[in-house]
Amino acid sequence: MFELYCANCIGLENNCLYPNRVAVSDAASLAAAVGRDYVCAEYRDSYRSNANFLSSNCLALDFDNDHSDDPHAWVYPEDMRKLHREGKLPHVMSGNRVLINVPKLMEMMDQLCTVE
């Protein structure tokens, strides 16, 4: 299980408030967390800034795939799973390249997400 912190908004570039803690333990809780803007760390007074960083219990990786317009050159979740064979690796696709299909996301997460 890991925690994500969600905003009360979606897509506001100047937002820095992430007051909603979501304990991610399965596909449904992950979908709830990523349905809004979110961060992978807790911040003092829920205000995101370097000075306010408190803790994080997960590692977020962002693969923009902006180095190429060729899909064959992109990094995919399957590529990361090949490097991380020991455990499960939940992932969320960016809206920059793919529209999130929530039922498909939940199906994928049921297969990938484990609770210890």
Major β-sheet annotation: 3 strands, antiparallel
Structural class: alpha+beta
Number of strands: 5
Order the strands across the largest sheet as they lie in space: 2-1-3
Shape: globular
The number of distinct helices, counting runs of at least 4 residues, comes to 3
- As residue ranges, the low-confidence spans are 96-102
Number of domains: 1
Order of helices and strands: EEHEEEHH
What's the mean pLDDT score?
A: 79
Beta-strand share of residues: 5-15%
Helix content: 10-25%
Distance between the termini: 7 Å
Rg over CA atoms, rounded to whole Å, is: 15 Å
Protein architecture, described:
The chain has helices spanning 27-34, 77-83, 102-112; strands at residues 2-6, 20-24, 38-39, 42-43, 53-55. With 116 residues, it is α+β, with helices and mostly antiparallel strands. It has one domain (2-61, 89-112). The chain has a three-stranded antiparallel sheet with strand order 2-1-3, covered by helices on one side. A two-stranded antiparallel sheet has the order 4-5. Mean pLDDT is 79; it is low at 96-102.
Q: Could you outline the blueprint of secondary structure elements for this entry?
A:
Blueprint lengths: L1 E5 L13 E5 L2 H8 L3 E2 L2 E2 L9 E3 L21 H7 L18 H11 L4
Antiparallel strand pairs: 1-2, 1-3, 4-5
Helix pairs in contact: 1-3
